[in-house]
Design goal:
This protein is mainly beta and about 120 residues long. Helix content is about 0%, strand content about 55%. Strand 4 and strand 5 form a beta hairpin. The N and C termini lie far apart (about 40 Å).
Length: about 120
């Protein structure tokens, strides 16, 4: 089992910034990916960004240029820096752990991000 603990999030005005963290513990493999998703109320979860074990990064088009994903492997932590936040970024954000083991898909507890004026 892998445990993911998220921190960060909160409320901010449009144009503001927040940083989310996702720390993994437990049966972590040396090479793993962390994926960030978000769920807007009433909708399905959608992919936001991901970072591979070797640092390859993918962003959803709607966050490209505004969000930055990074990882600190010494701390088993992945960060999602969110800048220039928009009202439409309001959602619950989740991190997800995956590695080469197909059954090893674990989710963080989710954290609310609210962008409002």
């Amino acid at each position: 089992q892998v445990q993911l603990v998220q921190s960060g999030g909160g409320s901010v005005q449009p144009g503001g910034s927040l940083r989310l963290s996702c720390t993994a513990s437990g049966d972590i493999y040396s090479y793993y990916s962390i994926n960030w998703y978000r769920q807007i109320s009433g909708n399905q979860r959608e992919h936001v960004a991901d970072i591979s074990p070797l640092g390859t990064i993918t962003y959803a088009r709607f966050v490209e240029g505004r969000f930055t994903i990074s990882r600190d492997d010494a701390k088993n932590t992945v960060f999602l820096q969110m800048d220039s936040l928009k009202l439409t970024d309001t959602a619950v954000y989740y991190c997800q752990y995956t590695d080469y083991r197909p059954s090893y898909v674990f989710w963080g507890q989710g954290t609310q991000v609210t962008v409002s004026s």
